[in-house]
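Summary for the steering committee. The consortium agreed at its last meeting that each partner would contribute one worked example illustrating the joint modelling workflow. Our contribution is presented below. We chose a case with several input lines so that the handling of multiple components could be demonstrated. No manual editing was applied between input and output; the record is shown as generated.
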Amino acid sequence: MLDNILEQVQQGKLTVEEAKTKLASYENLGFAKIDYHRTKRTGFPEVIYGEGKTADQIISIMKAIQQNNNNVLATRVSEDKAEVIVEQFPEAQYDSRSRILYWKLQNDAALQREGYIAVICAGTSDLNVAEEAAITAEVFGSNVHRIYDVGVAGLHRLLDHLEEIQGATVSVVVAGMEGALGSVVGGLVSHPVIAVPTSVGYGANFQGLSALLSMLNSCSSGLSVVNIDNGFGAAYNAVMIDRLANQKSRE
Amino acid sequence: MLDNILEQVQQGKLTVEEAKTKLASYENLGFAKIDYHRTKRTGFPEVIYGEGKTADQIISIMKAIQQNNNNVLATRVSEDKAEVIVEQFPEAQYDSRSRILYWKLQNDAALQREGYIAVICAGTSDLNVAEEAAITAEVFGSNVHRIYDVGVAGLHRLLDHLEEIQGATVSVVVAGMEGALGSVVGGLVSHPVIAVPTSVGYGANFQGLSALLSMLNSCSSGLSVVNIDNGFGAAYNAVMIDRLANQKSRE
Amino acid sequence: MLDNILEQVQQGKLTVEEAKTKLASYENLGFAKIDYHRTKRTGFPEVIYGEGKTADQIISIMKAIQQNNNNVLATRVSEDKAEVIVEQFPEAQYDSRSRILYWKLQNDAALQREGYIAVICAGTSDLNVAEEAAITAEVFGSNVHRIYDVGVAGLHRLLDHLEEIQGATVSVVVAGMEGALGSVVGGLVSHPVIAVPTSVGYGANFQGLSALLSMLNSCSSGLSVVNIDNGFGAAYNAVMIDRLANQKSRE
Amino acid sequence: MLDNILEQVQQGKLTVEEAKTKLASYENLGFAKIDYHRTKRTGFPEVIYGEGKTADQIISIMKAIQQNNNNVLATRVSEDKAEVIVEQFPEAQYDSRSRILYWKLQNDAALQREGYIAVICAGTSDLNVAEEAAITAEVFGSNVHRIYDVGVAGLHRLLDHLEEIQGATVSVVVAGMEGALGSVVGGLVSHPVIAVPTSVGYGANFQGLSALLSMLNSCSSGLSVVNIDNGFGAAYNAVMIDRLANQKSRE
Amino acid sequence: MLDNILEQVQQGKLTVEEAKTKLASYENLGFAKIDYHRTKRTGFPEVIYGEGKTADQIISIMKAIQQNNNNVLATRVSEDKAEVIVEQFPEAQYDSRSRILYWKLQNDAALQREGYIAVICAGTSDLNVAEEAAITAEVFGSNVHRIYDVGVAGLHRLLDHLEEIQGATVSVVVAGMEGALGSVVGGLVSHPVIAVPTSVGYGANFQGLSALLSMLNSCSSGLSVVNIDNGFGAAYNAVMIDRLANQKSRE
Amino acid sequence: MLDNILEQVQQGKLTVEEAKTKLASYENLGFAKIDYHRTKRTGFPEVIYGEGKTADQIISIMKAIQQNNNNVLATRVSEDKAEVIVEQFPEAQYDSRSRILYWKLQNDAALQREGYIAVICAGTSDLNVAEEAAITAEVFGSNVHRIYDVGVAGLHRLLDHLEEIQGATVSVVVAGMEGALGSVVGGLVSHPVIAVPTSVGYGANFQGLSALLSMLNSCSSGLSVVNIDNGFGAAYNAVMIDRLANQKSRE
Amino acid sequence: MLDNILEQVQQGKLTVEEAKTKLASYENLGFAKIDYHRTKRTGFPEVIYGEGKTADQIISIMKAIQQNNNNVLATRVSEDKAEVIVEQFPEAQYDSRSRILYWKLQNDAALQREGYIAVICAGTSDLNVAEEAAITAEVFGSNVHRIYDVGVAGLHRLLDHLEEIQGATVSVVVAGMEGALGSVVGGLVSHPVIAVPTSVGYGANFQGLSALLSMLNSCSSGLSVVNIDNGFGAAYNAVMIDRLANQKSRE
Amino acid sequence: MLDNILEQVQQGKLTVEEAKTKLASYENLGFAKIDYHRTKRTGFPEVIYGEGKTADQIISIMKAIQQNNNNVLATRVSEDKAEVIVEQFPEAQYDSRSRILYWKLQNDAALQREGYIAVICAGTSDLNVAEEAAITAEVFGSNVHRIYDVGVAGLHRLLDHLEEIQGATVSVVVAGMEGALGSVVGGLVSHPVIAVPTSVGYGANFQGLSALLSMLNSCSSGLSVVNIDNGFGAAYNAVMIDRLANQKSRE
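What follows is the complete predicted structure of the assembly.
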């Protein structure tokens, strides 16, 4: 593309001023492809972090994205805000457990693929974070198998789902308290595991620190960790891997 | 006993001075029974914490105990010191892995009992601490089953020993890194589990903090925790429970 | 049992399909005995962690357990929720200090035994956690002696109860602030002590960290520790030990 | 396979005893495939964590693995130990920067694949950890592009390699101090990034805590984190992803 | 000045009492110039830290300052308090984003100077702290260029403003989460950078600790750090530097 | 006293039962003198920690103390509770800044003494803690000089009170933020300094940790530290020292 | 004194230059009395912190002090350095346990007084710190009673010394591990207690943090705390109090 | 410059290939000016961080820099390495206290300027860090006034240098332990203060954390902080400010 611009200048088809503008935009696009272009090409929706934004702010961002014919996903949207938003933006869907609000193009073939992500969680109190991961992955076009309430205190519950877990392309493991589920799943599968510590617990849990340290120090290889309660981040990673594994043929 | 003294005073069998001495000694014994008397009655050996003591200091304490015809166990004795001690005290036995040095009366029937303590450890690097626990328990007269190198990264290794673990009176679980083994064992047995976090690991392990927090936050009930690397303390607790369970008939 | 199934197959008494189902269930039971079977055999009630569950969720779990003719104990149930639950489930009892709600079969002989657990607490502010421990232990069938407000700042109050404490099978020591009571009791008794740090205090207490570290570093042997404010967990451990010590004859 | 065993019992081809043995081994294999079988099938070498093992222990493990005709990789092997090992095991190769010692079958076609992993590091002091990642990935059969000394203090050095980084299947980013490189790379690529905080730095670095927290809190999506200095773990994750992306056709 | 007083005593122009008073005041002024005198000479307004003060307290302090014909700036004033204050002190201006309330003399030539401070922030959630810095600097008489929402996840947004940032006399960089923006800006400019970590984030952010450690450990030279969320402090430093650079001719 | 009891038994003046009761009470008194007896002898009031107690509980404790003709001081009593208490106990006095509620016998000569305690605080936000110290000391009978708002940012304010501070028997220094005032005062006086870190501040203050560590690490000798915000504890220490220094003649 | 100088100037007895010098020295002395003058008047020796100083540096400081006819005390002097120093300064005395080196004028009547300081320590490993406190206090002229090895694990040992402890003017309590001894002593005496946490312990002791937090959070009033292992600082405080209590008549 | 290149292409003076090369180099220079160009223009020496580099590595970097006719400064060079380097590079100068090794062009007029930086330190143990700051600043061409051993425990020592400190353009304050010196100096001057916490201290100092937190929480405005022991970083900041203030006329 640079060749092209320079040749056009050489041939007098572009003035110096025009060339400068184009070069500037080229430079910007060089970086911008990680933003706007990637979204277009991959079908990833734009993401809004809802915490600390007003309902009005979220609505205006969503409308801008919609005009680009792009999917949109907003995380950490409280029920109060969601009500206001959905009223003005009725095609959006809201899930109160994951606090995710999204709008998705129908029949977006670009998003469909084989294989599935296993979203596994330890206890019922980890459900919100697990759902943030699961719904994020689904809106991003991955298939999700939910395997919930399989904490290591009752190992047989986990082992009952062993085959289903081992069949996934990538697992997202969500656990609070001592976070042992990450290591146990990591030892049972041969695919990448994204571990999400949650702030569930009390006392020496220190708002998720115990699960976080536990997962970082896992004796199982093949585990990597995202921030406490960051279901979205885990799903984002998992979807990236899922696409690399299951979508190559389409590109 | 107080009645007795007072009655003897009443009956003129004791002078006031004699009574005072006896009452004083009674008072002291009231507290002292936790030291000297308990040792006598229960057959528990005296314990010496070897760290920061010289070989000479350890020898003189051991000799004093031996004169009371009591067993003795010294923890955290380095190999250097042990050599010096064993030279002067050849009936003592030293175990270099656990760094325990002990002297035990032959045929001490008072120490024998049924049932066993399971000492379980996650990896080979936790062996030293596990052996500190195992040998302590044995010197204190408990039977010990060692189940080593059964970390959760290879869950089948643990499950292969399930029956043996479930058959114990009490388990001591020794694990570093993320310490998940504590929770997993806790979920598989119906007896008390004493968890020992070890300082094994690196980075965000923070000298055992990760395993410690993990074990304190266990989602399994029936787990209690001792200090990092405190194999002796775990064994001491386990032996107490073992005696309550398996030695009642003899008392 | 495995022999049995295989023999029945050999003898044509079981089809391959039937054998598979049985083996599967055997396998599940292998792990499940830690859940359902243990409850049945031991008379332990099912336990519900009330925090983060709605009144409706708790009611439906309780009803399911009741149908199995099992006792049930729910911890950390706020007064608001308890009111709603008791209205629909009038045979349940609620204790507002410990925030425990439970339903217990009458005359459950399986739960009765000799000996007692001493539940000891330092100050009036530790009462809630101490009561969580005491009531849990009682619902689980242990006898409990409450020895409250005996913090080390007034040592004579503790020593006045020395005999009662020393007579217990196991002690649960509940203390906040500097948690010194754990070490002091540990030095006075020859039975296991389960220490519960509480989050009572301010400033450099750091939500219970001071008491937690204090108890983990106790100079007294025979102390093990559970999570901050975890009265339930301490009682669960204590009851396990109490059963081992006092209930053997009945099994 | 279960069907098969049961049918053989039914048909008298297996005695009950023989069936029991087979069922046991089946059960073990069920879990063991994550160990031994996975290694076989995938061509992953066996891994030995060298820290805390003697040269002799490492040699005997390596010989056992070699007899299984398997590759082997040992991490954290000091130069002292390596010298001893290589003397007795001359076909092994040692890399002193990464402290990795490995033995690899020639022409192991199973390990070859397309695409590459970018191993990126911030400063020369992060080299050891970066090399642990790079060599691990190579021994595991991935192609590696090393992009070193591109810390954010001189952003142009990083941007000079932008195309090469963006062309990778997955990136491993190794950085100490403030660990900002993770976020910056994460914002520039559309593939998964595995971030490795290192303990490089001083003062408020607190042995890698600053880089660790920085990476966990990255404002860039698509980043997941492994333990401080855990180059091996990062490579292990990256190789798993690389295989999913680039090796499907061969399976 | 000391000479002067003593000479006047010598010459009988001052009594001993008068000299004592003068010496005392001299001494006090020696220190007091850092308070009152500095304010006068430099045109710096008096500053009130509003947190923990009532509206009434703030009003009475403001009135006292106004009588000295001095500018005044109050930070961390909540909207509630501001309403009350502005009602009684209508010439004051309130900015709700930065929570700053100030009163500024018109045409205060003493405050005007060349050059500008770049106030740069990473995300929209850092805006409040950035505005506290920006408005503080403006009230103190500096020119401010606001460069907002240029976090490193989208590096091109930052690079688009490169020239403007490089042209500043001093930069204030406001960032939460991983705080990488500090290092990146530090590497791109050759003037001093004051970094302000913010408490924006969640989980392992630990109320701003991650950004704080990140900035303290920056691999870029030329960065110094103020307390978490301390936009005012950063601006105060930046203004001092701005004056040294741009106002010398006037003194 | 023990002699006495035993002699009375010897002489038949006491039965064994009566002697036992007396000995028991003697024993209790032996420890109780630290509680009840000390209060009597020294004129120290009884102290109630109000946090976590209901108004009713406080009232009933106060009434019990009043019947013993003893002074009483309750700390951390919220304004709500205080209103209820004062209504029923109108002779009590409440100070809303220090949150102290107390009742003091008139003309309690036992409490008066020479000398004074300097209570020094850094900023207006430390006032509540400083007043808790000052009023505690006054109710305990010490004279108090309040030297407030003399933080080290304006050193001359502190130096203006140098003589008054140096004239005290003991100083209580109350400071939040960086707590430097403790070291500075410690370097200026030759009497004991009790330092009280406060939780005043934000960001890297971590609820008083910065001031606490600062005071513990003081380069000035003669400083000792109490818990964060513990104005009462500091005053209690100061009063003990004040009595030792100024009240000996009266005993 | 200021009057005096000014009057002399007025009367021509001092030139302006002479007055300036005197005023300067007055000013300096105003602060210096905390240094040099206090030492003279009170008989306190000069103190040298030996850590990080060479033997030569210590010798030259000691000689300077000796020329002022003043006592000197150097803390944290290693045995190596002490040997070198004592060779050149043979009148100095060295104590290897406390690592204190000192030189004391004979028959320094100014230092003698009534009453005593109780230096109490928990275990033999706390001895070094306890001796640093005890010897410091003795060199500063206080009488010291050593009550060692009375940790709370054997409460009767402490209670055996109750009367001796209660008879002291002030206590210094030295304890590592959980530091409970501070609270227990604090509850048994009615005089000030200076608590010294030591770094003795392992695991979750975190280099003395557990004892430090424990002592700061003591439930006993009348306790104040110095830095970890700071025996000198505790003694310094105790001596100050001892002087206030026992030396008034002489001043 | 961009204009220029494009015009040359337009005029046929540059081929497309040549233009591409130039544009690339322009782009690189765009960022590189922060590296190489800044050094040239400003006379700043190149800086080498010596820790973790071998003597040979340092020599070869120094030679490369020397060929560019540039000054060079290497920090954290141990005495061992320095000896080797100076032997091969005899024109280099080494300062063992600051561990700085540098080579400076004679008569480098570009580096000279008016005004001075005050480098202030609390105690003799902070000297190494203070010298790292002082020598760095001098090699970078600033004038430095050293004001050492003026810790707040003896405030008069600091106040004796008040005028000298207040006369500086910028101060670097180096202090360990409680770091109070930062706040005290900050309150006494009206120029920017760069505070350097040092790791000097013990116990609750936690390797410099106490001084770091103290300085970040300073109650004095105008203070900013660099990493623990980072004398170089503080000097780098101070020199930047010094140049802005004192060198403008020359540019």
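Chain A has a mean pLDDT of 83. The beta strands of chain A are 46-49, 72-75, 93-95, 100-103, 117-121, 144-147, 170-175, 193-197, 223-225.
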